[in-house]
Design goal:
- The radius of gyration is 15 Å and the shape is globular.
- It has a single domain, classed as Alpha-Beta Barrel (TIM Barrel), CATH 3.20.20.
- The chain is built from 4 helices and 3 strands; from the N terminus they run H-E-H-E-H-E-H.
- The chain is of the alpha/beta class.
- The chain starts with 13 loop residues before the first helix and ends in a 15-residue tail after the last helix.
- Strand 1, helix 2 and strand 2 form a beta-alpha-beta unit.
Length: 116
């Protein structure tokens, strides 16, 4: 089992992000996925390690307008992110078609059930 420090939550602090990057490089992870505010730090810490930096757009609900997601994406790329995880509501067929036209692909689907 991996240490909890390498799976920081939404409220991760700098020390946790540094641990994440150190352990990702040590264990040859393909990438780390962090909130946008941590992209510049991760890019700096992981430079030359072979570990990519991924960030989230429209997270956690996917309710942002497309223009906001585009702005978030451009900024993340400018800061060195090499992968974007985009959150879109599954029922929003128009948004899904739009993002597919830009080269995004569906990689995961989350399902849930209410507890009675």
């Amino acid at each position: 089992m991996l240490p909890s420090a390498i799976v920081p939550g939404v409220a991760a602090n700098r020390s946790q992000i540094e641990t994440l990057c150190r352990e990702a490089a040590e264990h040859h992870f393909a990438s780390v996925c962090v909130n946008p505010m941590w992209v510049p730090l991760c890019v700096s810490l992981l430079r030359g390690s072979g570990v990519e930096v991924c960030t989230v757009v429209g997270f956690p609900l996917g309710a942002n307008e497309s223009e906001i997601k585009a702005l978030e994406t451009r900024r993340a790329v400018q800061q060195g992110a090499t992968e974007i995880d985009l959150t879109v509501f599954e029922f929003n067929a128009g948004a899904i078609a739009f993002y597919r036209s830009l080269g995004y692909e569906t990689r995961t689907r989350r399902m849930s059930k209410g507890l009675d």
